[in-house]
Amino acid sequence: MYPILFFISGKPIYASPVFLALALVLGFFISRSEIRRREIPLKAFYLYWVLAVPIALFLAAVNSALFHHRLFDVISNPGDLTSTGLVSFGAVIGTLGLGLMIAKIYRISAGQVMDAISIILPLILGVYRVGCILNGCCYGLETDGFFGVYLPNVSGQWANRYPTQFLLLIFDFALFLFLWKWRLKNPDDGKTTLVFLLSFSIFRLLLDSLRESPMVNDWINILQLGSMTLLLITLYALIMIQLKKSPHNN
Fold first, then answer.
1. Looking at the domain assignment, is residue 99 inside a domain?
2. What are 19-49's pLDDT values in tens digits?
3. For residue 126, what are the contacts with CB-CB under 8 A and spacing of at least 6?
4. Where is pLDDT greater, at 172 or 217?
5. C or N: which end of the chain has fewer Cβ atoms within 10 Å?
6. Which residue segment(s) compose the domain that 99 sits in?
């Protein structure tokens, strides 16, 4: 809709990177307060953020290249990512995986570190979704149904579509508010991460059926395949945790 916010010296400033930067700044300061509350060393926090931003952006860009383009085309012309946006699966896996590594380096609770990350991720994704709305990416399929909203795709073609960008934004902020409030009940280490991953993967599996994306076969598209993969990994982790808690293993 409005992919370019303004111009500086004749150069366009795009909505997507602006709101991504805003999301990262908010995530940094809010997560710092959560890290302090959990008494996680600040040196671990700063090392995490130094590494997390480039890793998350790289994996999200690779994800976008694999999901929306031929990888070779994006490598040869990385500017294409400005108009299509990033894909969050890579960022989610990368940031949580990095949190696990940082926890091992500093010998602190991996569950505590990953829980702190899982609380902030929906906020970062939610703020970034504002850029998606303005950019016109993450658009839904055309529909004549009741839920259709007159919106453009990334090429500027307007039609009645499922408002998937708005639904993603609402979900991300709602999940952040839920996890932010729930954290005060001090759930077991790692439980917040599992709740985040289950909620995120299930919602995306359902919502991405309404998005225009390359089909893997007649009933699932490539974004849903990503959601299903993340869901299966999370369910496997949940099963393994439950087995370890089983009385037969005591």
1. yes
2. 999 999 999 999 999 999 999 999 999 999 9
3. 23, 169, 172, 173, 176
4. 172
5. C
6. 4-177
What Rg do the C-alpha atoms of the chain give, in angstroms? 19
Burial of 55 (0-12, 13-18, 19+ CB in 10 A): middle
Whether 221 is covered by a domain: the verdict is no
Q: pLDDT for 93-128, tens place per residue?
A: 899 999 999 999 999 999 999 999 999 999 999 999
What are the DSSP calls for 139-180, one per residue?
Answer: PBPB--STT-EEEE-TT--EEEE--HHHHHHHHHHHHHHHHH
Whether 179 has a pLDDT exceeding 90, the answer reads: yes
**How many folded domains does the chain comprise?**
1
DSSP three-state, residue 185: helix
Question: Does residue 79 lie in a domain region?
Answer: yes
* Burial bucket for residue 243 (CB in 10 Å: 0-12, 13-18, 19+): exposed
The gap between the terminal CA atoms of the chain, to the nearest Å, is 58
Judge contact between 131 and 15, C-beta under 8 A: yes
Higher pLDDT, 105 or 88: 105
Average pLDDT for 175-179: 98
234 domain residue, yes or no: no
